[in-house]
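Quick bug: IS110 family transposase output formatted oddly.
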Amino acid sequence: MEVVAESVAGIDVHQKEITVTVLIGSAESAKPKKVHARFQTVTFDLKACGAWLKQQDVKQVLMESTGQYWRPVWQILEPFGFNMILCNPRIIKNIPGKKTDQKDSEWLSELARYGLVSASYVPPRQIQELRESTRLSKSITQQMTRLKNQVHDILQRSNIKLTTYVSDIFSGSGRRILALLENGEVINLASIEQAGTGKRGYRLKATPKQILASLDGALSYNDRFLMAMNMNLLASYQRELINLESRIYEQLEAFSELYHRLQAIPGVGEDTAQIIIAEIGSDVSPFPDAHHLASWAGLCPGSYESAGKKHGAHTLHGNKYLKTAMITAAMAAKSTKQTGLRDFYWRLCSRMGKQKANVALAHKLLRIIYVMIQTGATYQEYKKSQRTEDTLTPKI
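Here's what came back:
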């Protein structure tokens, strides 16, 4: 194998300490010089590690993305000027045998020396912070959904069929009726009419008698206690989510122009545009082309060939946050009226099915986004009629 880096270091990262192996030697040397060292993960020792690597004349440092443990190591060593490479642990598994931290670091250094691993994308600090905020927002939203489902479960097991007549029991009239159940108040037609009255009078589609009949269940004291606790947690999550959204908008001010350009794409709303910027950033130069970006996001089907025959394969895992956002955007884009993206989706449906066509549309959206970020262009609609005209126009 050809040596691509003559002075490299492989770092096996753990919570308490890191194990470092340095390989130094020219491409002609049969056996490079090998040096081992261990450092604690406190800031002082990590800085000492950077100084030690400088003394060893190391040019390139390779480490695997182990949870969040790699991040402080990366942030402290990066200012020393090394060529930092982060890799996916899934694709650099060591050969079977006795496993030690030192052997793992040696394996990483050998991979770096021969250039056998591709670097993972590590965005700038500003994008990392935006990414942390948007991912926390998604996590809070998921927690809120779980709390709402628990409230629904309590109502159903108590044979309270309020959701049959009220579509959203967590806001407006539905929330006020739910508060009557939480407090254990006596519920009658008058209290239901008062709870269902808004600024424009009675706003529920169901009659008070229907609502009253749906509340005739067996809600125990413990169920009321649990429901009140879930509702209090839900209210606290809602308050914190509002604060977090304000913070996200502050972080997006530096990318305001791109943020608004992305929303011109059919199917891409505010939330999707936020995730796109947080996961990709405002610079796509780390990705050689749009196909590399789509592969990184997990929107490219794999390839499998055996005995000269090619078989289809599922898409890879990729970046689950970006992948989910693009699939959601594709589902919205296919429902738009008179757009080229909608035409593209229905053309594919006829030969590959709706699910695969939706993934293909998400892939197309991501390729469009790549070009928009790379060139600074604005999305231009390309409809079916324009494609027909281009086909009929003779080429000169």
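Actually, after a second look the formatting is fine. The mean pLDDT is 88. Closing.
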